[in-house]
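Hi R.,

Here's the chain you asked about this morning:
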Amino acid sequence: MQTITITKPDDFHLHLRDGAALESVVNHTAAQFARAIIMPNLKPPVVTTELALEYRDRILASVNKQYDFEPLMTLYLTDNTSAEEIKTAAESKLIKALKYYPAGATTNSDQGVTDFKKTYAALEAMMKHGMPLLVHGEVTNDDVDIFDREAVFIDKVLTPLAKDFPELKIVLEHITTKAGVDFVLSAKENIAATITPQHILLNRNDLFKGGLRPHNYCLPILKAEQDRKAVQQAAISGNAKFFLGTDSAPHERKNKETGCGCAGIFSAHIGIEIYAEAFDETGAIDKLEAFASHYGADFYGLPRNADQITLIKEELSIPETIAFGDSVLVPFRTGETCAWQLKK
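And here is the predicted structure, written out as tokens:
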């Protein structure tokens, strides 16, 4: 197959930053995706409906007028998020979910949840109003190996949480392990997962090929090959519980190539193309449309997009760097090629 036309896709996990950085990256996504779930881990974090709507306005002001792009806003769940704020968010119709970060788990997560019990009033309200909980599924205990954090989180935190809130919609974001896949498959229909391109394509060896590879460093960290294969199979399975979420996360080059580098991979420049390559390599290109364009919208209760895009099986060169504010970032697959590209 040399071309494929699919329903215009959505990205159900995206970091855009703010200010000049936002202006630099948002149109990479808007060129390919109709909608995107926007992560709220700014500084300061987006913790109220008012802040989220102001951020939404800044995003829309940064989108090139040639694109029809809708940011789907989220709130940052904290120990102090109130049931009243959940009600306000739901009534706005523009806030689509709340994001849970364990305190200190990843970039700008310092104000995350310290104890899930402190959020139970908010979670009750979310269940009542049909607001999904988007979960960064890792524990942050120093005594837990970084490669085991997702599995321990599922066992110690997520399983009891799902039992306490049986009707709460939960998305286990950017799953990285066989344990994550198995949990989602065994759970009820109100539990789903997003899958990133890096966790389909890379394993933890890709962090160290020929030396340390800071631009392959993300959180949750890349896992073993058996985990990568499990995530890959989930993505191409045709199971509606699994859908696209790039977790594209831009950082300045200097903040990646440093003594204590930031976690995050920027993939928005080849957002849909890299998934097409990954699905095509496994003989599952026919499963791409549902994964990228249908399942996420259905889970969130959104209408499927009416527009279409066409992808061409033609080599696309990936630049060494991309402009990022007054600096640059290093994109996913820098200096390499992608086997597919979006037809302009």
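One quick note: The first strand starts at residue 3 and ends at 7.

Cheers,
M.
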